Amino acid sequence: MRLGTTISRTFVAMMALVAVAAIDAPARAQAPTTAPNPTADSVNEDLLFKQDPKIHGRISIPDQKAANLIQPQGREWRLFHEGWMPWIGAAAILGMIAALALFFFTRGRIKLEHSEESGRKILRFNGFERFTHWMTASCFVILALSGLNYIFGKRLLMPIIGPEAFATLAQWAKYSHVYLAWPFMLGIVFMFAVWLRDNIPNRIDWQWIKAGGGFIGKAHPHAERFNAGQKVVFWMVTGFGTAMGITGLMMLFPFYATDINGMQVMQGIHSLIGVVFIAAILAHIYIGSLGMEGAYDAMGSGKVDLAWARSHHDLWVEKEQAKTASGPQLRPHQAPAE
Amino acid sequence: MARMKFLCDADRCIECNACVTACKNEHEVPWGINRRRVVTLNDGKPGERSVSMACMHCTDAPCASVCPVNCFYTTADAVVLHSKDLCIGCGYCFYACPFGAPQYPRVGNFGSRGKMDKCTYCTGGPEPDLSTIEYEKYGSNRLAEGKLPLCAEMCSTKALLAGDGEMIAQIYRERVIKRGYGSGAWGWKTAYRETVAI
Q1: In this complex, which of B15, B65, B111 lies closest to A175 when CB atoms are compared?
Q2: Minimal Cβ distance to A77: which of B48, B95, B186
Q3: Could you tell me the CATH superfamily of domain A124-297?
Q4: pTM (two decimals)
Q5: Domain residues of chain A, as ranges?
Q6: Range A69-78 average pLDDT
């Protein structure tokens, strides 16, 4: 019984083996007849590009960045930088200049309105605030010009002064761009720390915006230390300044935080924000100097005419005067309290 | 005039890196810069291929287009060269290049990358041919001596071909027809907007 079972099991196993061999046989017999095809699994440029936008491999030199064989994304960046950016930049900056000129010739200079308070001064920005403003501003002007040089220099300046002189200038522009970025970023941090308190949006800003900021018509809407327009400038400068700083650092320290595609994107953001920033600051410069009588003193001497302050920042003046009833904010020759 | 190109036959390249070494030695390329490199794709897997890559001297070169000081120029042989006197080391060419060719002596050191360096197709630079100053800035000028780039000249398997585009494409085409396979002219579509039709 036992033996019979063993025999029958062995027979079944043998039959199974024969069957497997029979199935396997044609496959084995076919293999040697086909010549080895070395390209059967070979990598192919088109297929690799379908899997990934860049072709990456292994490299035996220490520079691992060189392991990217082909990364064609630079073509899109080129199209953006050479095809679009000069037009975007020109439109933003020339557009703003045209708008400001139009405003100047229609509305004219916003005049100082005289009152019985004219001639008296109130301290608007202290020494540190003015230092912060001018450090950031002077850096900004050079950063803006040297930045625009990357886009427009070869198109506008190089044909006039020749390649050698232009290359020397561009070299110095590049150094100033890279080194002045640091005091600029420091200035942005200072500005944020010093002026954040007075730039939190509130209800008064909404009223100011609804009244058109007093640009249209003669009425002066109420405003605290900074009106809604100035708050927009504050948030624009700190926001754009931070964005410029971050994108700029990504390019200053290549491969620390991002690869080549990241740097292309960073450069794109940097240049786009850059031209918008420049255009916006042109408006800021206009209203702080030519556009409004009495406004420049705020950042010049730091002291503004009380009549000007009363009409443009009435709530701030009230607060300051309440804070210092004896009037250390005001010149001693003001009417003494009796 | 010829239209000089490189073509790497990946089915022949054995990743010996002799082209890399030859280039470094011929031009005394500084430490940290590799004008030519060999990249191995699908390393260790079936179908592994190695491709030797350097500046492809593109048609309508992106580096030249984005350069803010226009320091690039194309020679009569269609070799893309640049002037290290004009280069300001901004890094734009290095953002634009599809082949990672432009490199800088001090890439991690902010603001002072130094002058860009890349493959010159053994054609030197804007200085007088075969002058010492040209050698110091750009390396040797083999084309002026009537020779082709050393990387391709000394390639042991003749995987790397340099010369007139039509001619090297023909050599590659004949190889592919004879042996029955070929993984294509790597980078040609990106660099020249064309490929070698078999």
Answers
A1: B111
A2: B95
A3: Transmembrane di-heme cytochromes, Chain C (1.20.950.20)
A4: 0.86
A5: 124-297
A6: 95
